[in-house]
Structures are given as C-alpha cells and as structure tokens.
Description:
- This protein has 562 residues and is mostly helical.
- It is 81% helix and 0% strand.
- It has helices at 2-25, 29-41, 53-69, 74-79, 81-106, 112-122, 127-137, 141-169, 175-205, 211-231, 236-254, 257-296, 300-334, 336-352, 359-377, 382-390, 396-403, 412-441, 448-470, 485-507, 514-539, 544-561.
- The protein is globular.
Amino acid sequence: MEEFALLAVAGVLIIVLISLFAPKLGVAAPILLVIVGIGCSLIPGAPRILLEPEWILMIALPPILYSAAVNVPITDFRRDLETISALSVLLVIASAFATGWLIWWVLPDIGFAAAVALGAVISPPDAVAATSIGKKLGLPPRLVMILEGEGLVNDATALVMLRTAIAATAGSITFWGAIGDFVYAVIAGVAVGLLVGALTVWARSRIRQQPVLTTAISLTVPFLAYMPAENLHASGVIAVVAAGLVTGHQAPKRFSAVDRITDRTNWRTIQLLLENGVFLLMGFEITSIVADAESSGRGLWMAVALAAACTVILFGVRILFVVPLIARLRARQRRVPEVAEHLDAALEAVAEGDQEANPRRAARLQRWRADAQFQATHSLGWRGGAVLAWSGMRGAVTLAAAQSLPSDIPYRAELILIAFTVAIITLVIQGGTLPLLIRVLGIKGTSEEAEGREVTRLAEEIIAARQAFLDNQALLRENGRPFAPEVLERTRSRGLAATEALAAMVNDDDPDGHAQQHRELRRQLVDVEQSILLDARAGGTYSSHTLQRAQHFIDAESTRMS
Length: 562
C-alpha cells in the first residue's frame, strides 16, 4: 500500500510538471504524459500496474465528464446538437462495425459480436488533447464546442455498444433488443441526469454563505447521477453529462459568486489530475499489456499490425463521415439569409401586435433569430472540417473499456493490446501533428476586434440597466425606506466606472495604455497590502480573527483583478 501511495504522489507531481512545461515545449500534455509513463514503466524495479477497469469507469470517468460538462455553454451545445449527435452516435456505431469486421476477418475465432465489442472500445475519440491544443492555438469557439460535445457524448454510445455486444456473445440479445436497449439507456440516462442536476442545484441554492457545504454536495453530483443510472441499466455517462449541463446552466442564476468561483477552481483541479492521470497510467500500463500478449504466444506483432490497420480504418471512416457533414452545414449556412428574413418579418409582426400578450412566442422567435445569426457569423468550412477529421485521439474510455472485456473471450490479451496501441498511435501521431495542421490551414478564432465590439455592446446594456434600476422612484430598502441620495449617487458613479472598465480592459491592447497601467498599479497595491498584513501577523498585535477578515478582503481584491 505504501508503494502505491508513493506512486500516486509521484504521479501528481509529474502531472503538475508536465502541465507546466508542455505549453513551453509546444506539445500537448497528454502526449508527453504517455511518453513519460512508458519511460517510467521501463525503470528497473518499477511495479507492475494493471488497474481494475471499474476504478476508471466508476471513479475517474464520472468526475472527468462532469467537470467538462459543467463548463459547457448549454446554448452553444444546443445549437450544434445535431452535429454533436451525428459524431458521437452515428460515427461511433459506424466505426465500431467497420473495425469490428476487420478484427473478425483477421481473428474469426473470437466471433463477430466480440470483434464489434472491441470496435466499440476503440471508436470514441477523447477530446482532451484536441481541445487543449485547439484552445491554445485559438481555434474557432464553435469548432472547440463540437469537439467537446462529441467527447462528452460518444463515451456513452461506446459503452452501451460494448455492453450490448458482450451480451450478444452469450446469445442473450436480438437485433431489435439491442436497439431497444440503446434507446432506453439514452432516454433513462437523460432523465436521471436532469433530475439529479435539478435537485442538487436546488439543494445547494438553499445553503447560503457556506461554500464548504455546497462544495461537498458538488463533489457528489457525478456519482449521484452515474450510479443510479447504471443500476437502472441506463447510461451513467449520459446521466453525468446531463447533470453537468443543468448545473452549469443554472449556476449563474442559483449560486453565489463565491460558490461559482470555488466550483471552478475545484473542478479544474480535479479535471487536471484525473484526465492527465489516465494518460500517465496509459503509458505506465503498456509494458504490462505487452508482457501479457507475449506470454500468450499468439503473435505480439500481429496485434500491433492489426492495431495499425484499425487506426487507418478509424481515420478513413471519420473522413468519409465528416465530408458530408460539413457539406450539410455549409448548405444550411447558405439558407441562413432566407431564414433570417422570415424570422425578422415574424418578429416585426409580433412587435406591431401585442408582444406582451404572447411573450413566449416573442422569446422563441428572438432565440431562433440569434441562432441564425450564430450560423451566419460562426461558419464551419472545409478547413475546420479537416481539423475535425484529424481530431480522433483515443483516451480514458478506451483504456478502461478494453480491460473490461470478459476473461473468456479468445485472444483477450491481444485485444487489449490492440486497444492500447490504437490509443497511443492516435494520440502521438494525430495529436502530435494537429498543431502543425492548424498552423498550415491558418485557422483563426474570433477576432479580437469582433470580441471587443461584443464586450462593448454588452457593457452598454449593463450600464443602461443599472441606471434604469437606480433611477426607479420605487426603489426601496429591505425595511421599506428609501435609500439616501448620497448612497445612490456614489453607487451610480462606482458602477459606471466598473462597467466601463470591463470594455476598456478588452479593447485596450496597448501594453502602455492606461487600462494596463491601472491593472499593474492595482496589483502592486495589493502586494503592498499583503506585505503589511504579513508584518502585522508576525508582530502578533492583532487578533487572528481580524487578520483573517483582512486577508479575505485582500484575496477578494486580488480575485477581481485576475
């Protein structure tokens, strides 16, 4: 036990170091972690590690998915739901059957159902490496959103297919039974996730000014969604994603600022350790997987060659799928002006009538008009399609699901090696060359000028709303008395300055501009305040309670500048 505890501590330190230096080296952290893991496994005396698949599927996977889902804007997810569904369901099924047929053709002894089970294992891409590279190199937000959405949902498709294929090896399921199980798993998983998300958001919103307690509930949400769904034979992955989307969407309305800041910090830390820990473990386990395949005596290199062939099939199927998908998106974009014209006419008709009499229709039309504007300004062309086709790296689910194959399946050791080899090949080759592809294609995200215009427009709306609220003659205190005029005037001036500073911060790109100088000066002042507080703490002339309150104030000031 002590040996594994030391390995865990060493793993955390390696993850931190790799995450710190990977951006400076221009290489995605998951790639380096796999390489480091392989190197560590070759050290003489290194322990043999083969983690039980339940540890990843039940302990690591739910928090990983939840931490990603809770930060996904549900509006963007909804706008590209059709594309995300096609990639995460139809593409995974097509890839599983294509690679499964190849494996069955080479190894007919294992049976077609078992071959499809392995195909399901190697079919879902892991979006961690792709999105980390994409965000770093400034890919368009819509492309990053599609990759993140695909990575959230495709695991569910793969795991449900794996479960169904394994059941088929025992002859206990029919074709229509498999379809029914899949539909049930998705619908029941969504229902469980929505219910858990809504209930936990309600419970956390009832706890005021106690971030420790709300954080404790937050840490349980992935498991509260995953375990009941799995016990109901639904998709625990879908349940976790649904709970995360609900929580992330409701957080600005139901949680305090302190709760939101705490949540972001905690889940980013958990996501960093678990996601990267899986890649480090993948590299560390490969020597044990190779040893098992060698000991079986049935052809180590045959498994490696078959893994390379499966990788080619996966890439080919993805290209054949992405090409018509991009063509469909471009055709839809060409129809946007016509759709927008009809929506504008409908909005004018509502405005000329009584908009307040049918607010839902007006809100629905405005949402559709915003969706059309999004399609027009955030197009996804062929260059984006090339990045989408090349972003097929495999990761955590492939690692865990491969080891969950039944022990009585023929060639089990070789099948696990095939899955691991596919994951490593795709991660190193596709992940390693993805930055070069992005640079060669010259894909850029939203321009700083356009983003600055959006922030300015939003700041103007906030300023107008603040002024209207403060100018309201019916504005009263909680005890029913009016606010003092001096308080209202001071609030107006401070609020105006803070909101205008938001726009200035984004629009001021000059390193010597006033906004940049102001931020630097505020940071230096906070450093002075912190230094004085430390001197007071060392002198012992102030009570600990007073020092703690002062520290919280300084921390809040520092947070506002970050």
